[in-house]
Amino acid sequence: MVITTTELIKRFLTTVNRENKTIGLVPTMGFLHKGHLSLIKKAKEENDLVVVSIFVNPTQFGPNEDFETYPRDILNDTNLAYKAGADIIFNPNVCDLYPEGSNTWVNVEGDITKVLCGASRPTHFRGVTTVVNMLFNIVQPDRAYFGQKDAQQVAVLTKMVNDLHMNVELVVCPIVRESDGLAMSSRNSYLSEEERAQAVVLNEALQLAGKSYKDGERNVVALIQLIEIKIATMPLAEIDYVSIYSYPTLAQIENIVGTAIIAVAVKFGKTRLIDNEILK
Ligand code: PAF
Q1: What is the pTM of this model?
Q2: Which of 43, 91, 106, 207 is the most buried (most CB within 10 A)?
């Protein structure tokens, strides 16, 4: 069933016997790939009812970003989501979630939203936390599913859920990769053939650093340098950031002691790709 308004989905979900049924929510911006489908499958295993939201959220895009051109294919998405186990597709329009005059934000303060993607996309996480909050309020899921590829988003949403004592369990699923190691992303569809071939360097560089970490390297500057040198071998790659922080707090560190994240963002032409590796 595809439901396109908040009013209808709220009405539908109140008629479901909530006492006996668990609801899993998979929030997406559509153009579904195997990464999204793995979240839907996991949600199906763990819940009675799976709601997949498909909504390209304008407030998480900056003024010069790709909101208008973000890939959209609702028909294909609907088919893929059903096959993976979705029961309800929630596909609202912008005016429904953000009616005229709507100007309330949910914002996680502090470095956690200012470093990494927050540095080059200063209003991004405010848009994410606000829309995810709305979806939680509308669907009232028992569990919500997110991919580890967006590791900072996971850290920020976990903080939001904890800080606001929200009654939902966040389930984080592993990164799904193409056969050559490139992390699945809807934005991969923007890449030219040459850019696509060079984009494997993100994962290769992370693997290199991961190996060096396993061999005993703990110094953040040394590991970052290793990654930067590897990425620089690809002429079309333009580094936005290569960083290592403690995870999930995203606090600055000089040497890796506890759990840490190596996070990279690299531009190929106009396409900005992210990837990460958690070091435990
Ligand atoms: O990860 C995404 O696709 C988006 O940030 C999300 C969580 C659906 C919010 O718009």
Answers
A1: 0.97
A2: 43
